[in-house]
């Protein structure tokens, strides 16, 4: 049964994922201020978790859930997010994007294997358009997408875990936003800590206290205005719109990232970027429209 606000949620996911396409801007600013991308990410999730702690304590006092029963969702989604974020530290940006944005394939396979949902032919069309768009935009420079280094495997693992975690939330149907948000942020931190031995060289030295405190207001702003609200929307949505739809809509991050880089830096925006971005946008629109019409037909 389709969620009554299906279209609105799809639009929210598309816009929110697109906002992550601008994430490179604050990351670049943090790097220029002395906080490397890897440590900046750790700091943002640490601050986000600290913000959520008082609310978690309050909920426990009231006998309400803080998401511990959704640990599997948190483990897969949180670790997937960190695998993706850290993939940029140990491979080329283009390669990280290509391997992560194979997510529509994994999302569809997960639906078939675990949700026992046989996709209709419109899904094949939308997934094909999306993947061709990704390939034209960033994949032509990579060649056949075969992982050859740690960052490639991180990007691939991130996409797989995202798809699996999305399916798990669809199965569990978490009640409310906070429990899922809290457990995902928690596992983001756990994954970041566990990955440190593999990334110590890429992360570099731990930033000094002076650097951290000088960047603290900016980090707090990023956590409050981007990390927490976007995490809440992105990871809550699969339980309402479905894993397959989710896997295609999050490609808006790539579209916004490519366009913003071209507008704000000396990156090129030629026929490849325009064609690929257009195909990804069309795939998202077609997937939502076809899903909506199918649901309407089945309920009439």
Your description of this structure?
The protein has one domain. It is 78% helix and 0% strand. It has 14 helices and no strands. The protein has helices spanning 6-20, 24-32, 37-61, 71-87, 93-100, 103-113, 121-139, 150-172, 178-203, 209-236, 238-241, 243-249, 252-264, 271-299. Helix 1 packs antiparallel against helix 10, helix 9 packs across helix 10 (209-236) and helix 13 packs antiparallel against helix 14. The longest helix has 29 residues, at 271-299.
Rounded mean pLDDT score: 89
Distance between the termini: 12 Å
Number of strands: 0
Total domains, how many?
1
Structural class: mainly alpha
Proportion in β-strands: under 5%
Q: Quick one: biggest sheet?
A: none
Number of helices: 14
Gyration radius, in Å: 19 Å
Topology as a string of helices (H) and strands (E): HHHHHHHHHHHHHH
Shape: globular
Instruction: Return residue spans where pLDDT drops below 50 for at least 5 consecutive residues.
Output: 296-300
Give the % helix: over 70%
Q: How is this structure best summarized?
A:
The chain is mainly α and 300 residues long.
Strand-helix topology:
Blueprint: H1 6-20, H2 24-32, H3 37-61, H4 71-87, H5 93-100, H6 103-113, H7 121-139, H8 150-172, H9 178-203, H10 209-236, H11 238-241, H12 243-249, H13 252-264, H14 271-299
Helix pairs in contact: 1-10, 1-13, 3-9, 3-10, 4-8, 4-9, 5-7, 5-8, 6-8, 6-12, 7-14, 8-12, 9-10, 13-14
């Amino acid at each position: 049964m389709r969620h009554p606000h299906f279209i609105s949620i799809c639009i929210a996911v598309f816009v929110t994922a697109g906002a992550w396409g601008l994430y490179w801007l604050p990351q670049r600013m943090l790097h220029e201020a002395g906080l490397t991308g890897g440590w900046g990410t750790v700091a943002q999730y640490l601050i986000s978790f600290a913000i959520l702690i008082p609310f978690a304590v309050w909920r426990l006092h009231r006998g309400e859930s803080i998401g511990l029963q959704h640990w599997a969702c948190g483990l897969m989604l949180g670790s997937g997010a960190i695998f993706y974020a850290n993939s940029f530290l140990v491979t080329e940006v283009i390669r990280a994007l290509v391997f992560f944005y194979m997510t529509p394939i994994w999302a569809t396979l997960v639906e078939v294997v675990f949700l026992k949902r046989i996709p209709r032919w419109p899904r094949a069309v939308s997934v094909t358009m999306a993947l061709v768009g990704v390939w034209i935009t960033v994949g032509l420079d990579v060649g056949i997408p075969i992982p050859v280094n740690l960052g490639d495997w991180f990007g691939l693992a991130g996409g797989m875990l995202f798809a699996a975690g999305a399916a798990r939330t669809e199965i569990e149907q978490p009640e409310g936003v906070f429990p899922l948000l809290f457990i995902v942020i928690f596992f983001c931190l756990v994954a970041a800590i566990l990955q440190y031995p593999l990334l110590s060289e890429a992360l570099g030295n731990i930033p000094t206290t002076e650097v951290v405190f000088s960047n603290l207001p900016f980090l707090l702003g990023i956590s409050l205005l981007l990390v927490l609200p976007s995490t809440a929307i992105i990871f809550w949505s699969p339980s309402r719109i479905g894993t397959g739809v989710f896997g295609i809509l999050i490609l808006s991050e790539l579209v916004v990232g490519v366009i913003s880089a071209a507008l704000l830096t000396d990156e090129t925006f030629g026929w490849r970027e325009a064609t690929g971005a257009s195909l990804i946008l069309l795939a998202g629109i077609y997937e939502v429209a076809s899903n909506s019409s199918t649901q309407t037909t089945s309920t009439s």
